[in-house]
Amino acid sequence: MLFKLAASSVRHRWKDYLLLFSGLAISSAIFYLFETIAANHHFLMTNGQTVSNLIGYVFGFGAILLGLLTLIYLNYANSFLLSMRQRDYGLFIMLGTRKKRIGRLIWLETMVLGSMATLLGIALGIGLSFGLSSLVINFLGTAATAYHAFWIPAIIWTLVIYLGLFLLAATWNTVVMTKKPVLQLLKANQQSSFHQSKPFILLVELITGVLLLVIGYYVMIKPLVFHQYTIIIAVLTLTFGTYFLFKAVVNTLLQWLERFSFAKRGLNGFTLAQLRFRIADYTKVLTGITMMFAMALGAITVGMGLDKMIDTTSRVSGAYDLSIVDPTSQQQQLIDQLSLQQKKTYTFVRDGKKLVFAANQFKSQPFWQVKIGEKVGRQITDAKLQVIPAQKTDLLASELSNYLGISRQESGQVDQVKVQTDLSQITGSTEKVVFLRTKNIRQSAPILKKLAQLEKQKHPAAMNNPSLWLGDWNSYQQVRVLYSGLEFMAVLLGISFLAMLASCLMFKILSGSFTDIPRYELLRKLGTHESSLRWSIRREIAILFGLPAVLGVVHVLFGLNLFASLLADPYKNLWLPFIIFGLIYLGYYLFLNLIYQKIVLKKVDK
Amino acid sequence: MENNSVIQAHHLKKVYGKQQERKYTALKDVSFSVTTGDFVGVMGASGSGKTTLLNMLATFDRPTAGTVEIAGQDVTQLKGNALADFRAKQMGFIFQDFNLLENLTSAQNIGLPLSLQGKPAKEIDQIVIKIAQALEIENLLSKYPAQLSGGQKQRIACARALVNQPQILFGDEPTGALDSKAARELLGLLQQINQKEKTAILLVTHDAFSASYCRRIIFIKDGEIGHELVRQASQSRPDFYQQILDQLGTFEK
Ligand SMILES: Nc1ncnc2c1ncn2[C@@H]1O[C@H](COP(=O)(O)OP(=O)(O)OP(=O)(O)O)[C@@H](O)[C@H]1O
Ligand SMILES: [Mg+2]
Description:
By secondary structure, chain A is α+β, with helices and mostly antiparallel strands.
């Protein structure tokens, strides 16, 4: 009987349940998608040892972040569920149902909802992974065979994490529902959480908040002071700083605004009061949202920035993309197709295992190198191209041996590269080497790939040896995998953060909407214009969306500084990710607005 | 008659149920009028259609057929903002429960209709204080509804209903949630307003005691006006109360 009652009330509010259910399913789908990469060591390993370790580490870090976020998210989803069910359960208890039975019902309800959502989420996630698999493979390298959209360890991880968390939630719900006084459950809707804060306390909170934020920002501006602790310190100080700032400033601002005559015009007073009542309860949510907003925006910005850095980073090892010894006619054809920035051709004499260059050819045709930046942490981003003076033969020799020497030592072909003015003592075959620097390594990639392949075939012993270094093309391949991996992860994380953030905000606002229905009904009966009601709702939600956005953007602006070592100029072209992000955020706002109005402003007169 | 009638209801009919649903006729054919300064009670058994009638008079719902004129205007034709403005300017309401917004103070609650009309803040403050003095609720003004008793809340609701000096005040069982002492106070207050301000009052109630404060009582039975009682000038309230009880006795047979 009790089950029937419970089921019927679920049916009655199926829309709210659908919202909750789909939110949970999407969250677990994202988690699954992430795990198909993070939990597939085989796949991560295909890209070579050094890169794989790094990527594995990066994805591990991402998985922890995502897990943390999931925890927060489920917490909000659960409180939404609780707020929906409180009254019903209060009623059951009042009617004399034993608490133990109620407890079991609640436990079961949470678990059923949770496990169904997780299963659906995994199914969705598998579909999503299939859909995105070409994208994933494209981003993470060519190892198509190693990536599996259907990946058992990912399923297991998702199940373990989600079911574990739901188990916690179910137990928590049971305890809350059975321990709370009945009256409190029944009157959950009428309770007002508002209490006026003393000015002194507000001031203390304000100072604490600002101080924490300043510390957080300082740490991010000077990441070298605290090294690896920077991120932890920043996350902690910013989170608490945001919390106190919201608590103090918004409270004060609202109390202050209410004094003005503007507060008595139309529904202004009502909106202010709504916000003031909510702010106390929303401070925590807003803080969470602000942090998620900052991370989502930060991740997407960094991800997009990383993409631009692939070329720069891969080209710090040398000035030339490829070096080709005695190009074949096939290679020559390919070279002609390239759009080149520099093409240098030198001759040398192969004397046994010694390669000897005549120094004078570097006068007419200067050889270039990359000068790495001097500032700690900015070596790569400050790197510059420069000419090696022809008289510095040692420097020339060591730079040339990067391309021709060291990497061929193992195979026993070359053990020394020399540059000297007088070649009369040297005997041996004369060969030609061509150094190529393309205008755009990314655009030339397909041709470079073929060229490099052909060049490697000349050294059968070193065919699969990655240390056969022909030029920046080698680095480009590795960096691209690493950075695309990072980029992919950053964007994926950014989108998950954004999705969960929106969902959290939605749950929180919607769980408040049930108390709002009679309020708006009353306002309408008192003769409020329909348009004013809508305007009031729009404004109220806009403020709840806007506050985290403003503070979140500030966090991001400071936080980007952390990536100065990775991105040449983290602040360049910021508008693009910001606009994309802003549009998505705006979309969420409009969507939530619509739903909220649908729920709260039910039409009465036809 | 025409000039001083506040409400004129002509042949009101209300059928509940949408196209596919089962139809239920809650009101069959109701016509009556309320004059300026009138104090009308609407009585009847549960389910007889009292709330239905009030909702139509108060413009919360539209009749299936018939018209309602308030202050000479056919309100069944009003829509949207015109309807909202009409409510805000001409009518006051007191409901059985949930009258006040719990996130506003009493003063803000009372001033709300004036805010909605865009009155300047200073004027709102003055009017609120004046009306609070008249109803002896000045000490409650800065409190939130959660800090008030049921009776106090209804007095605040009463103040809010009167703040825009409406032509007519509607109440749907405003004493329903009050004990007899608080109910008596509220009714006394309504009577006083009715006499001093000449505000017409229409009160739905199932309780004979509350009804005895009215000047005229309409009995609804099965969606029609079954009977009408008018209190004579010479008649005392207890006497009228007895008459209502007798009427209810015969009515329910
Ligand atoms: N929205 C509705 N849809 C369908 N039927 C309705 C609706 N509202 C009321 N009714 C029906 O109309 C009839 C009159 O209802 P109404 O609420 O007017 O009664 P009432 O006289 O106010 O009763 P009470 O004294 O119990 O409040 C009832 O039989 C009720 O079931
Ligand atoms: Mg009724």
